[in-house]
Amino acid sequence: MTPTRRPLVARHRLLGRSAALDGLRGVALVWIVTYHFTSSRGPFPGGWVGLDVFFVLSGFLITAILLDEVRVHGRVSLPLFYARRALRLLPALLVMLAIWTCLLLVFAGTSWFAATPGGDGTGDPVDIGAALSQVGITLAYGANWVYALGSGHAPLAHLWSLAVEEQFYLVWPVVLLLLLKLPAARRHWPVLALAAASAALPFAYYAGGQGVDRIYFGTDTRAVGMLLGAFAALLWHRRRAAGRASWHPEARAWAGLATVLGFLFTVGNIPLKSLAGPAIMAAAAMQVVPYLVERPTSPMARLFGVRMLVWLGQRSYAIYLWHYLFATWLNPLPSWVSIPIGVTASLAAAWLSWRYVEGPAMTYAKRFRPATTGPAAVTEHRGVARAA
């Protein structure tokens, strides 16, 4: 008699909604928001590390989703994948940009509308034509290259990271499908090589006289975080299929978290931030992310699984979209006024976005999931997808 094969979902704890990953996203968001409201003068001079955590999370989760789709369905439907991504990201962005544009037409001549978050004083009056052009570039997900060339519009500067992620989402599924033609034991090595190249580019550009903005905002130099996240997902998926445990995951996770925290509290706006910072932070964060999925009952997972952090993580996209605008508009006010009002307004805007924009869009996006073949397939496919 042939023994009954158990579904992989029943054997492993790597699938399903991860509250700890939501919480990690929430913590990273707190770092970023605090940094933008206070800059290097606040409690987190290295709050920029939160973006690197976001990049690793994005690379890991998107790769895990695609790998599971191949495993369950035998293929990846690129049109369905891109449709789901668009429905997840575009509606909230469109609403935010529409509201900002309406306010722009009314307040473009005021100095507070273009203040620099975390900076001193107010900004110059906004040129409406240039600002509307920036809105179009943002919707085309090319904003990071505008800032890399030093000509971006400050009140929308935070949207550069969305452009980097969307450019990765556009290319990565095709690259991954090509990698899947390789033997499982060799698929991750080209990804590691690409990550190493991305990590080396800042030094090459700096030696060649390129400016800091080109290094910090370029997709080629910032892809290291998403590539290392993808690398971690490939290793995770291979171990899961083979039923093997990772090597000393707890020690590596705590060491990675300690490294991130060390930068968070010490490394502000210095050259290391743009040169080696993203690669070091990505290498550290990639030790944490798989561990939180593998060990959902560990002390670290319980720490990140605190309800408030999970709530913030689930709404992190809208909070990220809105907080920078409030940090801009309120910057001329004293920090003891601007920070409480700005944070409260950001949370309120995010709640409205989640309730009336993102939630309905995600419900509609379920129509673009591949057809499943059975209960186990449904569980396995949806588990990781809901965490993205």
Task: Summarize it.
With 388 residues, the chain is mainly α. The protein contains 18 helices and no strands. The chain has one domain (16-385).
Beta content comes to under 5%
SSE topology string: HHHHHHHHHHHHHHHHHH
Cα-based radius of gyration, to the nearest Å: 21 Å
Secondary-structure class: mainly alpha
Task: State the separation between the terminal residues, measured CA to CA.
Answer: 41 Å
Specify the helix fraction band. Answer: over 70%
Ranges where pLDDT stays below 50 over 5 or more residues in a row are 1-15, 374-388
User: Oligomer, anyone?
Assistant: single chain
Shape: globular
Tally the beta strands: 0
- Can you tell me the number of structural domains? 1
> Averaging pLDDT over every residue, what do you get?
87
Walk me through the structure.
This protein is mostly helical. It has one domain (about 15-385). It contains 18 helices and no strands. It has helices at about 10, 20-40, 50-75, 80-105, 130-140, 145-150, 160-180, 190-205, 210-215, 220-240, 250-265, 270-275, 275-295, 300-305, 305-315, 315-330, 335-365, 375-385. Helix 4 runs parallel beside helix 16 (about 315-330), helix 8 (about 190-205) packs antiparallel against helix 10 (about 220-240) and helix 16 (about 315-330) packs antiparallel against helix 17. The longest helix has about 30 residues, at about 335-365. The model is unreliable at about 1-15 and about 375-388 (pLDDT under 50).
List the helices and strands and how they pair.
Elements: H1 8-11, H2 19-38, H3 49-73, H4 78-107, H5 128-139, H6 143-148, H7 160-179, H8 188-207, H9 212-217, H10 219-242, H11 249-266, H12 271-274, H13 277-294, H14 299-304, H15 307-314, H16 316-329, H17 335-365, H18 375-385
